[in-house]
Design a protein that fits this description.
This protein has 457 residues and is of the alpha+beta class. It has twelve helices and 17 strands.
Length: 457
């Protein structure tokens, strides 16, 4: 390795931050380019690294769940981002949620202290020269100029969908004479604030959502917009049917307020149970900020205030941040990327994170880990690694680099979150679902431990 060799990492989101950290761990110099605050995006609010623009949750934490398994794999691999999420976690039942301000600040400080890292606050408007080893981690909010250059380089129109963020309210403004604290089925501690609705309140709320005015999506007609199905705006859910929200984010099952009476009394349970329940999750360690779970929205801010204050317990809610919608860009990765996350037509250029077509925070971190690790290996004259498809990381990378060959389809590539359906079958069929997921976990973590041993230092 040349002593002056340096890797360029474009973008300091979750993937870029993780890639830069893995390069530092390998003793490789890094130039980390982040366009904020010189040029911000429609969804960002700070200039910190790894800012979470949507939810503050990384998903289920249990390793027998898909998101939790991916998190555990990354812990084994020495992920800065996942370890920081653990450090700045806030109560969220069975999920890994973080104090987003402390989390992002911690990531920024961790990289700023590294002597091997040079941070440049500027927009990278074009792809660098072919001789420069680069990790492209600009994420779904890639700037217009770089996206244009990327389209010219790939020869393909960019794929895209629309994503949204939920509103955040002040915890002090919630009316606890109506709202109550509980976790579903009383599992763990009472980490969620629950706002119950009766049928009349629910139907009025749904009607208001359907009739409300939405913000016009720039350069795209709303009727033809493509939404990510795992993060639909609440008003879109309302349009899909009278009960769609009640079977989704407003599901009332397993939530009970002791003030309603004895849960074990069947008559009480049937007469008092809420028709729908809106849940709020803690945003910060002190519980002063709360986000409306599943309430991604594209409503005008004035309508958000008016309609969301219809929710029992939120009539005087103070909105710290309103929900917003933004356009997400991703690559047609199966035609462009190798399983090492190198571009097929330019091996010194790596892609990482949601830009590749993975969905979710932990998946973005996983791409950053692999791209950063392989960029470091390239600088050191080593062959790139690929990861076993029996792991959650490996099967996600296989999906984004081999989708068309796997599915014999063209033109249908869409972002994919971690899920057990991507993993290869077990040697023996396991009927019990929980036991099957546990078997997937054990096999995956065994493969990850073997990888850690093979990589050594």
């Amino acid at each position: 390795m040349r002593s002056n060799a340096s890797v360029l990492v474009i973008g300091a989101g979750l993937a870029g931050t993780e890639a830069a950290w893995q390069l530092v761990r390998a003793g490789v110099k890094v130039t980390l380019v982040e366009m904020r605050p010189v040029n911000s995006s429609p969804a960002h609010h700070t200039d910190e690294f790894g800012e979470l623009v949507c939810s503050n949750s990384f998903g289920a934490i249990s390793s027998d769940r898909a998101a939790g398994l991916l998190q555990q794999e990354l812990r084994c691999l020495g992920s800065l981002v996942i370890n920081s999420a653990d450090k700045y976690a806030v109560p969220a039942g069975g999920a890994l949620a973080v104090d987003r301000a402390l989390f992002s600040k911690g990531l920024t400080e961790a990289l700023s202290k590294q002597s091997l890292v040079t941070i440049e606050r500027r927009e990278q408007a074009y792809l660098p020269d072919e001789d420069q080893v680069t990790v492209l981690a600009t994420g779904p909010l890639t700037s217009d100029s770089l996206a244009k250059d990327l389209r010219a380089f790939t020869g393909r129109e960019d794929c895209h969908f629309f994503d949204a963020a939920s509103p955040i309210v002040s915890g002090e403004s919630i009316d606890f004479s109506l709202a109550f604290r509980a976790s579903r089925y009383d599992r763990g501690t009472a980490d969620y604030i629950n706002c119950p609705m009766d049928k009349e309140q629910y139907l009025s709320f749904r009607k208001a959502l359907i009739e409300a005015e939405q913000i016009e999506l720039k350069d795209f007609e709303l009727e033809s917009a493509k939404f990510f199905e795992g993060c639909l705006p609440i008003e879109e859910l309302a349009r899909r049917g009278e009960d769609t929200m009640r079977y989704g984010p407003l599901k009332p099952i397993g939530l009970w307020d002791e003030r309603w009476g004895d849960l074990t009394d069947k008559n009480v349970r049937l007469s008092k149970r809420a028709y729908a329940v809106v849940q709020l999750r803690q945003e910060d360690r002190d519980g002063r900020l709360l986000n409306l779970v599943g309430f991604q929205t594209n409503l005008r801010w004035s309508d958000q205030r008016k309609i969301f204050q219809m929710i029992p317990g939120l009539s005087k809610a103070e909105f710290v941040r309103f929900g917003v919608m933004h356009r997400n860009t991703f690559l047609e990765s199966p035609a462009l990327l190798e399983p090492s996350l190198q571009f097929k037509k330019r091996p010194k250029l790596f892609a990482a994170g949601q830009l590749t077509g993975t969905e979710g925070y932990a998946a973005a971190v996983a791409g950053g880990w692999l791209a950063g690790t392989n960029a470091a290996r390239m600088v050191k004259g080593l062959d790139p690694i690929t990861i076993s498809t029996s792991t959650m990381i490996g099967c996600l990378v296989k999906y984004v680099s081999n989708y068309q060959r796997l599915n014999n389809q063209k033109g249908h590539f869409q972002p994919m979150p971690p899920n057990f359906g991507l993993l290869p079958d077990l040697p023996r069929r396991v009927k019990d679902k929980r036991a099957r997921f546990g078997a997937y976990r054990d096999r995956a973590l065994n493969e990850i431990n073997l990888l850690v041993k093979s990589l050594g230092d």
